[in-house]
Amino acid sequence: xxxxxxxxxxxxxxxxxxxxxxxxxxxxxxxxxxxxxxxxxxxxxxxxxxxxxxxxxxxxxxxxxxxxxxxxxxxxxxxxxxxxxxxxxxxxxxxxxxxxxxxxxxxxxxxxxxxxxxxxxxxxxxxxxxxxxxxxxxxxxxxxxxxxxxxxxxx
Length: 155
Prior knowledge:
This protein is of the alpha+beta class. 18% of the residues lie in helices and 39% in strands.
């Protein structure tokens, strides 16, 4: 038979810190699902939000979105007033009809990422390509305008 021990009634025993119960209660509080819920929601949102890499080259910006398992038809790419928005909504339904059971599963996933583009881009020349689970966008830069120097005669 297992030994049963009575918990001390709040009095500290020799060699035991007064704070032991305090830290035990604090650990219990932070391990409680209620307090972890905001962190779990944040982790779920990050898991469903694809990772994005942005690189600047001399003549263009490169945006890469990691979205494996999707098709190019699953994406919407819009540009409005200097704001580039990449979004996707995907719905799947799986149904298994067997002799003894019926199973129906639904899966819905979506994301939307928006980027404010700098003024030195050519929005009409943006190109997108989806290959091997990576959505790649090329955003060309405008060439810097040469400033002309002009001598003005005085009348």
